[in-house]
Amino acid sequence: xxxxxxxxxxxRARVDVRAALTVAGLLTLAAxxxxxxxxxxxxxxxxxxxxxLLMVAHRLTGGRHTMLAAVVVSAMVVSVPLFIVWNTGxxxxxxxxxxxxxxxxxxxxVAFGLLREQGMARSAVHAENAEQMQRRSGEMRQVNxxxxxxxxxxxxxxxxxxxxASIVESSEDAIIGQSLDGVxxxxxxxxxxxxxxxxxEMIGQPAARLTPFDREAEMLEFFDRVAxxxxxxxxxxxxxxxxxxxxxxSVSVSPILDEHSAIVGxxxxxxxxxxxxxxxxxxxxxxxxxxxxxxxxxxxxEEALAELETFSYSVSHDLRTxxxxxxxxxxxxxxxxxxxxxxxxxxxxxxxxxxxxxMDQLIDDILILSQASHRRLEREMLDLSALTRxxxxxxxxxxxxxxxxxxxxxxxxxxxxxxxxRLVMQNLLANALKFSRNRESAVIExxxxxxxRAGANGNGEDLEVQPPVFFVRDNGVGFDPALxxxxxxxxxxxxxxxxxxxxGIGLATVAKIMRRHGGRIWAEAEPDKGATFRFQLPSASWxxxxxxx
Length: 549
Description:
Helix content is 57%, strand content 16%. By secondary structure, the chain is of the alpha+beta class. It has 4 domains: 5-139, no CATH class; 172-272, Beta-Lactamase (2-Layer Sandwich); 279-318; 377-548, Histidine kinase-like ATPase, C-terminal domain (Heat Shock Protein 90, 2-Layer Sandwich). A hairpin with a 4-residue loop joins strand 3 and strand 4. Helix 3 runs antiparallel to helix 4 (97-170) and helix 10 (384-395) crosses helix 11 (418-435).
C-alpha cells in the first residue's frame, strides 16, 4: 500500500466503525421506544412510521434534504393530536406528551445519525478521491518527466541531424545518396560545384548519367560490392561533368543501413582531383626534365673530374720533375762547387732547396685536398682509437729526441671513411706535435665528451640527442681566439713560416672531410695555453641510441 493510500484506508475503517455504532444506537432507540410504549402508551406504532418516513426521505434525496424531512416529521408529531393504534379494538387513542417527546427525540437522533453517517461516507469518498488524485498526479508527473526527456532527446537528435546535414551540404566534395538500383536520391551543393548539375536536375536520375561509357562496368562492380555490405576505399577514376568534360575524381562508396541493419542504398563521396592530377603531370614532366638536366650535369661533372684527375696527374708528375731537377742540381752544385760558392752562395743554395721542398709539400697537400673533396666516401664502422694509435706510431719516427705524453681514450667508434679520417687524425696530431715542440714535456690528448647542447632545456624538456664530441688537445703555443676564423681557410696561417713550417692547407682539408661526413669542427685556444680542436661525427654508440629512440 502506498503512503497516499494509508489515510484513505484508515478513513474507511473509521466510517465502518461509526456506521456500526449508529446501527447499535438505532437498535437501542427501538428498545427505548418499546419501553416507552409500555410506560406512556402505544407510541411505537406512531413513532416508527415517522422515523421510517425520515429514513426514506434521506435515501431518496441522497441526504440533501434530511434536515427538512426531520422538521416536517417533527411538525407532524406535534400537530397531530391523535394517532391510530392498531390494537384489538382498533380505536383512536389520544397521544400523550411523553410519547410525542420520545418520538421527537428519536426523530432528531435518527436525523443526526443519518447526517453523521453521510458525512463520514463523504469523508471516505473525499479521502479516496484525494488518494486517486495524488496517484494520478504522481503518474502525470512521471509521464511529464518521461515526455520531457523524449522531447529533449528528439530535439538533440534533430540538432544532430541538422548539424550532419549542414556538414554534408557545406562539404566541398560531392556527397551523393543512391538507391541500390543506381538512382540518385540526394545531392549536395558540393556535387553541384563538382559536376555543374543542380539538385533538381539530378534527384531521381540514374547515376550512370555521370559515368563515362568505358567506366560503366566499374560502377556496376561498385554497387554489387555495396549490396554485399562491402565498403569501397578511395579509388581514382573519371566522371562526366554537365558540359561533357571528363574530370579525375577520387571515389569512395559505403552502404547505407536502415534501423533493421538492412542495406537500402549507397553513400558515394567523390572528390575532384583534376588539379592534383595536373600538378602530378607537371611534376612528372619537371622530374623528367630535371633527370635529363642531372644526367647532363653529371656528364659535365664526370668530364670535369676526369680533367681534374688529369690535372692532378700533371701536377703530381710534370711539376715534380722540375722540382726534383732543382733539388738534384742544387745538391750536385753544393757537392762539387761548394768551396767556390762561399758561405753566401751555400746559404742561397740552401734556401733554393728549402723552397723547392716546400713547393713539393704544397703539391702533396693540394692533391690531398682535391682527393678529400671528390673522393667517393666508403663508410664503415671504424675504431677511431685504434686508428689514432696507428697514426701516432708513424709520427713517432721523427720525434725520438722529444718527451711526449700521449693520452688516448679507448673504445671510440665512428661511422665514416677510414682513409679520409686517417688524414684528419694525421693533420690534427701533426699540428699538436708541431706547435708543442717548444715544451719540455708535451702532452697530447685524444678523447670524447658529451655535447653541451644535449640534456634538458630550461623548461625540463628533453632536447634531441646529440652525438658525442671528439677532441685533440695539446699544451702548445696556442693562438689568438679572435683569429680562429682563418684556421680552416686554405693558405691562411696564424704563425709565420719562419716560426712554424706549413702550407696552410691541412686544416682546410680536415674541415672539408668533416663536412662530407655531415660533421663539423671548431677550435678553442689561448696564446701560450695550448689549443683544443673539437669535431663531431656520428659514433657507433650514438647511432645505436638514435635507432632505439
